[in-house]
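Support reply, case 0932

Customer input (verbatim):
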Amino acid sequence: MGVASFVAGDWGTSHLLLFLCDENGVALDSARGPGIGQVSGPCATAFDSLLERWEMHVGTLPAVLCGMVGSSIGWTQTPYISCPAIPDKVFGGCVSLRGGRLHIVPGLRCRNRLQAPDFMRGEETQILGAAHLDASLGHGRRLLCLPGTHTKWVVLEEGIIKEFLTAPTGELFAAVRNHSVLVRDDCDTEAVLAGAAFEQGLQRFRDPSQAHLLHRLFECRGRQLDGELSAHEAAAFLSGLLIASDVNGALALFAQSASERTVHLIGAPRLTQLYARALSYQSFGATELDGAAASLAGLARVHQHLSPRLATSAV
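Our regenerated output:
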């Protein structure tokens, strides 16, 4: 077993995932805690409470965090780095706390393909990690998709984040499923996002009528009233509709040539599998990379870049 060297953490709105790492970024242990949206007291207190069991054995370690911890509702607000963003700009934008022992990664901003302001926090670290885990991402033009509550479509050129576009696909799914009459389903989300009804939702966007999403959403209720779908199946159908709409719209904006037929998916495996299925309906290939692994690799990359500074400040 390696020797503990630093702590890496992805601290989003809904969860905190911490890793105790050796100097190479290999996780020796992990811990989970409340997301920024659930922290009732100071972020520092919540963070320290999770570190206690590690620090009893290894002492105080440097830490690097990414995600909503750097937002206006987090520990401290870090800047947004403007795109195009090379890795060094992200490293240089990190905000230090606790005398340089803790660093928070900045977010990114751009004027997206639709000429609207766009922002990300946390995904930039996953992209840094993905480029480390898959060296091919550092060459040529690559289209990335990071599915989630706010799905990000990202253009990477020679390892530089050129631009991105956000689609609130997961948030819309939760809002319609939980707060509308279109779908009323209390089944576990993992069970919902699969099966024939999901495929049926994807297939609706192969209809030559080219109807927009808004004109298809009531099908979730109509097909229940007609006995075609159960409430559980309607939720899966809704997921298929939303993901197909997201994928089709993004490909229309970003797939510039017939030679660009692969999208690089980074995220939770259950979501990347669904997006890969939707891409296959459009004759696109997909590579899949676990989002947690990408976050850890990105945080390790940030720590290793900052390590010389940490050593200097400790002298």
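We compared this against your earlier run and they match. Two observations from our side: Residues 311-315 have pLDDT under 50 and may be disordered. The chain has two domains: 6-134+299-314, 167-291. Please reopen the case if you see a mismatch on your end.
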